[in-house]
Design a protein that fits this description.
Number of strands: 2
Shape: globular
Low-confidence stretches: 16-27, 332-337
Number of helices: 13
Strand content: under 5%
Radius of gyration: 23 Å
Mean pLDDT: 87
Largest sheet: 2 strands, antiparallel
Distance between the termini: 47 Å
Order of helices and strands: HHHHHHHHEHEHHHH
Strand order of the largest sheet: 1-2
Helix content: 40-55%
């Protein structure tokens, strides 16, 4: 064989090896989501977040409800990428400004946590991971289970208000639609029932309830519960800026527990989805099981939060690590993949 053929074959072999090396290097660079992702780059990250959550919860108990809602509103809309935290720009309305985000608050405390993490390790920990881990630690603050969650998410660069309705299940939708939307994220029926157990804590604004009270009271509501709801929501058209609300669970309003399931089986669910959950033949068996066993509820709730937190994340070289959680880094203007 002529020498030039040897040279050609050698170059070809070298090219193939190089391409394979690059492919393997890319795989090594992107391990996806893993436990203790920051153990080398920021070993104190999770501890800093946990301590901040404890401090902020001590000062403002309602922050825990906010962090729990954040994981639902962020991760259900395409992926867990902290797009919920971005401010609106001249070009686009942010997710947190939509009607579906009504009542979401305390975003500034996520920024407080981010600042504490940045002091420890600048430019290392994503806002998406902070959002997920703050929800995990808030669940513990509310008396719920500790859930071991993976990290390694990166931040998106755009907030897409126009797609919120497409992805985020609504409390007024049919249970079939709710199950379908969660199912598209890989969240099965018992996990959906467990996720809605988050309604065990917090409150529902009268704006979301009045259609069940006016002009006539929804006949499926427990008559013993109606006077309290009417007292808390005395206006058929409540002022959205007024702080008028009903506690989701009057018995243990600040504790994440299985009392919610006993309430909805007793027709004391505030939202349409609560009532449907307790009456639909696909979900009622799980509601009854969770009403009987807090241990079963916690097991399914932990699994559901894990599935939600791992919904289609940006990892590796996708997205970015934001310097501030409410704005994308200036050097990036292209859209997320």
């Amino acid at each position: 064989m002529a020498p030039k053929h040897f040279i050609f074959l050698a170059l070809l072999s070298f090219s193939v090896v190089s391409l394979l090396s690059l492919a393997f290097a890319d795989e090594e660079k992107d391990p996806g989501l893993v436990m203790n992702y920051y153990k080398e780059t920021c070993p104190q990250a999770e501890e800093v977040i946990r301590e901040q959550v404890k401090l902020l919860y001590k000062r403002h108990k309602n922050t825990a409800f906010s962090w729990l809602r954040n994981i639902f509103h962020d991760c259900a809309v395409q992926r867990c990428d902290a797009s919920l935290l971005l401010d609106s720009t001249r070009r686009s309305l942010s997710e947190k400004e939509t009607d579906r985000s009504f009542g979401l608050r305390n975003f500034r405390y996520i920024e407080t946590i981010k600042e504490a993490v940045e002091r420890e390790c600048p430019g290392v920990v994503s806002c998406a991971d902070i959002l997920v881990l703050s929800a995990r630690d808030a669940i513990v603050s509310l008396g719920g289970p500790h859930i071991g969650l993976k990290t390694g998410r990166r931040d998106g660069r755009r907030s897409r208000a126009e797609v919120v309705e497409q992805y985020l299940p609504d409390h007024n939708e049919s249970i079939s639609s709710v199950l379908h939307k969660f199912g598209a994220m890989g969240i099965d029926t018992p996990a959906v029932v467990a996720l809605l157990g988050a309604h065990s804590v917090g409150r529902t604004h009268c704006v979301k309830l009045v259609h069940r009270l006016y002009p006539e009271v929804d006949p499926v509501l427990n008559p013993d519960h109606v006077p309290h709801m009417l007292k808390k929501c005395p206006d058929s058209i409540p002022d959205p800026k007024a702080v008028q609300y009903v506690r989701n669970d009057r018995g243990t309003p600040m504790v994440l527990d299985n009392n919610y399931y006993r309430n909805i089986l007793d027709n004391k669910g505030l939202l349409i989805v609560d009532h449907q959950l307790a009456t639909d033949k696909r979900t009622k068996p799980y509601v009854k099981k969770m009403a009987k066993s807090q241990e079963y509820f916690f097991k399914e709730f932990s699994r559901a939060i894990t599935l939600l937190s791992e919904n289609n994340p940006l990892t590796g070289t996708k997205g970015e690590i934001r310097k501030q959680c409410n704005v994308a880094n200036k050097m990036h203007h292209e859209e997320d993949p």
